[in-house]
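Worked problem 6 (solution included).
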Amino acid sequence: MAAKISTQTISTVTIGSRPIGEHQRTFVIAEAGVNHNGNLGTAIALTEAAAEAGADAVKFQIFTADELAGSAPTAAYQRAATGAAGQRDMLRTLELRDEDFRAVAVRARRSGLEFLATPFSIPDLRRLQSSQPAAVKIASTDINNAPLLTAAAQTGLPLIVSTGASLREELDAAVKVLGSAARGRLILLHCVSAYPAPWNLANLRAIRAMQQRYNLPVGFSDHTTSTQIGALAVAAGACVLEKHFTLDRGAPGPDHAMSLDPRQLSEYVAAVRRAEEALGSGALGMSAAELEVRRIARKSVVAARRIDAGEILTPTMLSLKRPEGGIPPNDFARLVGRVVLTAIEADAPIHWEMVQ
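Solution. The predicted structure is:
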């Protein structure tokens, strides 16, 4: 059964001390993923780079290759980057130990970042909890994994769920599974599961569509190689952004080539913050910066020629000229037919005390 479109206010989810939702500061997740290549030192360096770039969180992936993959082949982009024919052999080189994740989590928190990770099984989820993550990220590949979704909801942690390569019916089913179990703790990420994803497939309008359909905060898991599309996603309503990054785009491994380097990640975050500033509060009305232009560029009613006391005003005796300060143009018709009480020179603004 399709989820009912709601007009209710979208809930706010708290990750650490950070509120996530409409009109809140965008939560930027620097996705280190497996770009540590199985090395703790590199994972620490990635964490520090994420902090320097201005991200709000750093995220990794926690798995055991032998439990995650059976006979699954690698995707074309993975084969091109690693030469591995099977996922299991590739993933074995990308594992970190539980104590490594705990060390990374400590470094993240010391650097002002929230620590996140994606578990790919219930045992992975249990392992992750020992690192005290601020939230649990569920990958698009597990959108139909009800046992993992349910177990993640039962942790009591905020859940961030990616939706790449999903049918609408699958999204409906996942939200139904999590709707009550993770009430007030669920964030969806619009995602295009292509690596890298081209601009023309980003479909950023899906962000608002998902917000309206599920009445949940929605973000964007960005698989493009652009440093600017995150800003566009913010304009489209994203409250969370997730972006892959690496220390070296030329390093061996499945995700380095489609990731941003630290300098590009800094550009990405800066573009997001500029977009937030440009969007403003949405309040209608004039800003203080507009006052000078308003004063000199708006018009008021002036005398089109010298008008003597006692004359009765006609439209041809009046004109509209800059600046404002006299009777506004909207009241032009109210002046016609009134008697002038005092002489008015040409181009002089007309005030109500000059007429009766």
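Discussion: The chain has a mean pLDDT of 95.
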